[in-house]
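pinging the channel bc i need a second pair of eyes. not urgent but kinda urgent?? the chain im working w is below, pasted from the shared doc
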Amino acid sequence: MYRLMVVEDENMIRKGIVNSIPWQSLGFVVVAESTNGKAALEQLEKIQVDVLLTDIKMPVMGGMELSKMARQRYPDIEIIILSGFAEFEYARQAISFRTFDYLLKPVNKKKLLDTFTALKENMDRKREIKEEIYHSNIYLNAGYETLRNEFLQSMLDGDISLFNDFEEKTASLEMDFSGHYFAAATIKFDRKSIFTELESTWGTDKRLLTFAYRNIINEELCNIDDVYYIVEDYDTINFVFCFPTKEKQDALMIPCLESISESIHSCLFKNVTVPYTIGIGLSYPSIHYIAKSFIQAKKSIQNNFYLGEHRVQVYQDNNESKYEQNFIRFYPEEMEHVAVAISNGNHEDTKKYLMAMFRELAEQNLLPEIVKNYCIALKLMVQSKITNSNGIMEEIIGDEFNEFVKEALTVKELAAYIIYVMVTLAKEIDETIAPMEIKEQQMIIDKAKAYIATYLSEKITLRMISEHVYLSETYFSFLFKKVTGITYIDYIQKLRMQEAKKLLVNTNYKVYKIAEMIGYSDYKYFSVQFKKYVALTPKEYRNRGRREAEQLQEV
């Protein structure tokens, strides 16, 4: 319940507002009444109030002065003004005090109900954002965010070793790179201007300023699931975007970056104008190219630094840009299918998808360099899907892969080589788990499932499970997918989502609490995964489940 104070000098009107409105059903409780602004301010010092409903014209102190002083002393308080005066000046002043609404007397009861219904929804959204930021800060203080930042920065810096066991690593950090369009971006503020602001406002405390950055960015991103960021320094913020569709990327990425930049500037830089520019690299169909996109984002800033109104600079570099855009445009979806088929040891599907891929590439009549680049990208994708990429894959493909691709004279020659090595790799993966009897395999997987169920609410890693069943991590990972048809990560997530569905409908726990109860450290990551799994947000699923339960009771 939100706590409401009613300030009105006319006793009959005040009592009518307090007694005739079903406040509790609206989500409010009247905790105080007052006949003028001065008395109201005295009460505010003693009583916690979330919403102030005040008349304008009152003795001793009117509603405008009360609103102004209440806003200064209690920045989070919501204000609704009642007035018999329709003059523009009163409305203008009300806006300057960030009042939620300005209602003319005699106020219509339906209008008052509608206003407080809308206010409740607005306050609920703000409360959820605050809770998210609060739990994000706990998450940050626990050092978990530091691990994420190090991983992201290494990825942007081009550390290809991160793509070994990529799915395991990202799952353990509660990060999701399952999109199809990946781009890096950076926001660069003018360092000298910020230093002036630091001296005057932040006492040269860069840590406090970067902490403020994170709070603002978290609030801006509360409804956007497809982005990660690093506050590199007090003048630089880097981003990784991963969208499921090009349309979503085009619609959200630039507006998101502009909104973050403007919010930081308007909220934090009070005494000076701080120029900034936004650099955006090209979008790629694989996360493996994110370091290249990041280099482009930084280049776009270096080449076009602080150009007046042109604050957003998307990478362009004549021939290279055209080449990269063609690479993205003709990206064959079969590459992803090939990587999955190989990781499953399915050599027949591997051959089928590769033949379809080369057929498509030949029809496009692309530059040889682009086709060869796809082959290198394919190797990286396969490497990230196979847990033991330094063992089986290197033994079959070896160091000569890149050299052969580079020197291939015809697409026919290239296709024959790629199909041969990739099919051989898929067959080898399939044979690594052939010697074990099916019954024994099933017993091991059942033992692993029992372990997962016991420790579902905790952080479960591949090492923990594989040690429990006395297998190597690589072997267990292959075996689990071979027997069950899904990865152990997907299996754990499925169990957690099923438990989350029960808790959402049958308990009143907050969403972040449910996330903690089923083993997620990051409440936002849980919400994103839940929506992907159920096609509803946790809140939407809870509301729908309870409506259905009520309908069944009525029947």
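so The chain has a mean pLDDT of 82. and The longest strand covers residues 181-189. — does that match what u expected or am i reading it wrong
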